[in-house]
Design brief:
The chain has 146 residues and is mostly beta strands. Helix content is 7%, strand content 29%.
Length: 146
């Protein structure tokens, strides 16, 4: 008769892990829940809040939190910063303009001028930069036409 050890103290898994059994050996397997990362040394699974590990992978100018429904990591720019990257977990193709023009664009903030090269395409990031108050150039006719 099969004894489901997952029903007894979660199979000795971390409280933030799910317990299951290997289909072949029936060994207990612990898997961290969404929003948690395994920081233990095999075979010990230690589930740590992902936001406490390198800010959950969020930009240094962003706060890390969890979605109320799924507990997935959410990055939100701090006050005074604006997302200049692409949304997390989104990969986009380069636009015709990005392919045609490969020069950086200057943006002015209240404190200093900064130059931003085009975002690395295909790299999903939330990039928080100081909120922009003025752009140093107007869009070209080509940019307006596209």
């Amino acid at each position: 008769m099969f004894l489901d050890t997952c029903t007894i103290s979660n199979g000795a898994c971390d409280p933030n892990a799910g317990c299951s059994h290997d289909n072949t050996t029936n060994a207990v397997e612990c898997t961290c829940k969404t929003g948690y990362s395994d920081t233990g040394v095999a075979p010990n699974v230690v589930c740590t809040d992902t936001c406490t590990i390198k800010n959950g992978g969020c930009d240094p100018n962003a706060g890390c939190s969890h979605d109320n429904t799924t507990n997935a990591v959410e990055c939100t720019c701090k006050t005074g910063y604006t997302n200049t990257g692409v949304a997390p977990n989104v990969t986009r193709a380069p636009s015709a303009m990005e392919l045609a023009i490969q020069t950086p664009v200057a943006h002015t903030t209240t404190k200093r001028m900064q130059w931003f090269a085009h975002a690395k395409l295909g790299t999903p990031t939330l990039e928080c930069r100081p909120t922009l108050y003025a752009q140093t150039r107007a869009p070209s006719a080509m940019e307006l036409a596209i």
